[in-house]
Design brief:
Layout (H helix, E strand, L loop, with lengths): L2 H17 L11 H14 L3 E10 L2 E13 L2 E14 L5 E5 L2 E8 L7 E8 L4 E7 L2 E20 L2 E2 L1 E18 L5 E18 L7 E18 H6 L12 E8 L2 E9 L3 E9 L1 E9 L2 E17 L6 E16 L7 E14 L1 H7 L10 E11 L8
Antiparallel strand pairs: 1-2, 2-3, 3-4, 3-5, 4-7, 5-6, 6-8, 7-8, 8-9, 8-10, 10-11, 11-12, 12-13, 12-14, 13-16, 14-15, 15-17, 16-17, 17-18, 18-19, 19-20
Length: 385
């Protein structure tokens, strides 16, 4: 699995443990039972979760230097939360609070490639969680004014790289559930009023090159559910064919915009700007197969820059939809697969029409283009490689 996808998967799991410190009561649950549930959840995801010190004073279990570690085939991920408190409440729930921020360190040592080191700072100021349920099935309801993840101190081959990246959410709320055991399950939902993304890098490919990305989306929601075995497979697709693996995730937004600028010292700049009214992205792993689909409504796009032969190219469509279904690991026998691409109500600028149809033969009316394929196929290599 490539370093950055693995980082995002692992960071999400680590944040899940932290976000449970952002999380209606069933039976009573104690601080110690909540802490054991955290450790069990981390173990299921392949992590080790330990505390440097545990102190029970009255109704409060105080944890310090809570370390989260994960050993990978070609590296490791680790982080430490300075302080976490779990306080028993009169209604049988547990109030969980934690340090406003902590760091996650990624060390990648891929065979035949350059080593990569970076730090992700996770910040959740003034966040709180209510843990409820019982020792075997705990639910965490969380809320907070903000959640951010920022990439810092990037090193490639022991040399600093000029790269900054941040994803920030405003006014977040949601829940997370975890039931341990071999046949256990998990589920989560997180909603935010706004999500903002900012990436900026210099000299990533060669001196004078650069990349800048900004995005703003509103009414963002993310969900996940599945078996505890699916929780481990979320970070390692090679485990997908195992019996009992089930993992479903979804993402949606209520509209936003994306801007990308690519800079090259020889060809100049290339700019991409897009806007949409809404969008979705769904992924699932079931019975060794993956389903992946997405959509966007009222999408408009503008491409411009020095690298183009014309000032700019424009396109818009009422709907963009795509989907893929197929195996995620190498197969000995042909398996079902499917591919869908749908462009509904597509229109393009006159400049692009002049390039594609200079004789003006084709009508300029909005068009709908559909590619819908289904069949059997063998996968010759693991997608996680």
């Amino acid at each position: 699995m490539k370093p950055m996808p693995r980082l995002f998967a692992t960071t999400s799991l680590a944040i899940g443990l932290g976000a449970t410190a952002l999380s209606p009561a069933w039976a009573d649950v104690t601080p110690e039972e909540v802490w054991n549930n955290w450790k069990s959840m981390g173990e299921t995801a392949g992590q080790t979760v330990t505390a440097g010190n545990e102190t029970r004073t009255g109704d409060t279990l105080a944890l310090s230097d809570v370390a989260i570690t994960l050993d990978l085939e070609d590296g490791s991920v680790s982080g430490t939360v300075p302080a976490i408190t779990m306080t028993a409440q009169d209604d049988g729930t547990v109030l969980v609070t934690m340090s406003d921020a902590y760091d996650i360190a990624l060390e990648m040592r891929p065979e035949g490639d350059k080593p990569v080191d970076l730090t992700v700072r996770v910040a959740m100021p003034d966040a709180s969680t209510i843990a409820s349920g019982d020792a075997d099935a705990v639910r965490y309801d969380f809320s907070g004014p903000a959640l951010s993840m920022s990439v810092q101190d990037v090193m490639v081959d022991d040399k600093p790289v000029e790269l900054t990246a941040e994803v920030a959410f405003a006014d977040i709320a949601g829940f997370y559930t975890f039931t341990g055991g071999e046949d256990g399950s998990f589920g989560s939902r997180i909603a935010a009023d706004e999500m903002a993304v900012a990436v900026d890098g210099e000299g990533l490919e060669k001196p004078g090159s650069g990349l800048s990305v900004t995005a703003d989306y509103r009414d963002v929601t993310a969900t996940s559910s599945g078996s505890t075995r699916g929780l481990a497979a979320a970070g390692n697709p090679a485990q997908a064919p195992a019996d009992g693996v089930r993992f479903d995730s979804g993402y949606s937004h209520g509209g936003g915009d994306l801007t990308v600028e690519v800079r090259d010292p020889e060809s100049g700049t290339l700019n991409w700007v897009s806007q949409s009214d809404s969008g979705t992205l769904d992924a699932a792993i079931n019975d060794g197969a993956m389903d992946y689909s997405g959509s966007s409504r009222a999408l408009s796009m503008v491409l411009s820059g020095d690298a183009l032969p014309v000032p700019q190219l424009e396109a818009a469509m009422d709907e963009l939809a795509f989907g893929f279904r197929g195996p995620v690991t190498r197969t000995e026998e042909p398996e079902d697969f499917g591919l869908l691409v749908r462009l509904g109500g597509l229109t393009v600028s006159d400049v692009l029409w002049a390039m594609l149809d200079p004789a003006n033969v084709l009508p300029r009316d909005p068009a709908t283009l559909v590619i819908d394929l289904a069949g059997k196929a063998r996968l010759l290599t693991d997608l996680g490689d």
